Amino acid sequence: MPALAPLAAFLDATLNIAGIPDYPNAVNGIQVANTGDIRRVATAVDFSSETVAGAVSAGAGLLIVHHGMFWGGVQPIVGARRQRLHALLSSDVAVYSAHLPLDVHSTLGNNALLAKRLGLEPSSGFAKYGSIDVGLSGASDVPTNVLAARAQQVANESGGSLVATRFEPDRITRHWGLCTGAGADSSTLREAAERGLDTLIVGEGPHHTAVEARELGIVILYVGHYASETLGVRALGEVLAAHFGMTSIFIDVPTGL
């Protein structure tokens, strides 16, 4: 069974960790190292006490997460934070995090996989962050209520529920934009309006985005932050396990958002 170094090298190269900009607290790559071989990999959307416990219980030597250990910034290692770290070290479990590099990947990314699940064919990027497009966009000819039903199914799989701004029953989605996670904000709405998009598919967004969208004639489908970002880590774990002859398990801890 492999040690951490070749696994991390494979992940770094696959996701282009060094080449994708990200928020400072993302700290993409290895966040905690282990010392032994790794026979099983666990994946999860978030680093938390529950996902750490799930990885330990499953006998995983590596936990891959989308939102890593340092998402909340620099904090004292006390209470639950100390307990999580102790559980990792005492069970020799490594942690690897991939945020925007996983969002933007062309085949394993959250956006690419959600577009595929919704039956949408991307033709360009969307949701600019620095030098990259985090999301995707394209043209379609699908009734918006059909698209909403597909999005509802994705939400249901994580115990969530689709939230959609109002639209007419016979409405057709012609030009769409998609950005998983916290994909709806004023900047993405401005970009959508400038590009003539009529429908946005996102994980979540603040209340004012629903109001702004109505003013702009844009429908937003809020799939759920958690639901929209389960796809990438699952796929990444499966690819890693297959490449190195291991097994992979997804630790499902829905947030309700």
What does this structure look like?
It is built from ten helices and eleven strands. The protein folds into two domains: 4-98, Udp-n-acetylmuramoylalanyl-d-glutamate--2,6- Diaminopimelate Ligase, Chain: A, domain 1 (3-Layer(aba) Sandwich); 104-228, Udp-n-acetylmuramoylalanyl-d-glutamate--2,6- Diaminopimelate Ligase, Chain: A, domain 1 (3-Layer(aba) Sandwich), CATH 3.40.1390.30. 37% of the residues lie in helices and 24% in strands. The model has no long low-confidence stretch (mean pLDDT 97). Helix 7 links the parallel strand 8 and strand 9 (199-202). The protein has helices at residues 4-15, 49-57, 79-90, 100-103, 110-117, 144-156, 186-194, 207-216, 225-228, 230-244; strands spanning 29-32, 40-46, 62-67, 94-97, 124-129, 132-143, 163-164, 172-179, 199-202, 219-222, 247-250. Strands 5-6-8-9-10-7 form a six-stranded mixed beta sheet, sandwiched between helices. Strands 1-4-3-2-11 form a five-stranded mixed beta sheet, with helices on both faces. It has 257 residues and is an alpha/beta fold. Helix 2 runs parallel beside helix 3 (79-90) and helix 5 (110-117) crosses helix 10 (230-244). The chain starts with a helix and ends in a 7-residue tail after the last strand.
CATH superfamily of the largest domain: NIF3 (NGG1p interacting factor 3)-like
> Using DSSP, what is the number of strands?
11
Can you identify the CATH class of the largest domain? Answer: Alpha Beta
Helix share bin: 25-40%
Supply the number of structural domains: 2
Radius of gyration: 19 Å
End-to-end distance: 37 Å
Counted by DSSP, the helix tally is 10
What CATH calls the topology of the largest domain is Udp-n-acetylmuramoylalanyl-d-glutamate--2,6- Diaminopimelate Ligase, Chain: A, domain 1
Uncertain segments are: none
How are helices and strands ordered from N to C?
HEEHEHEHHEEHEEHEHEHHE
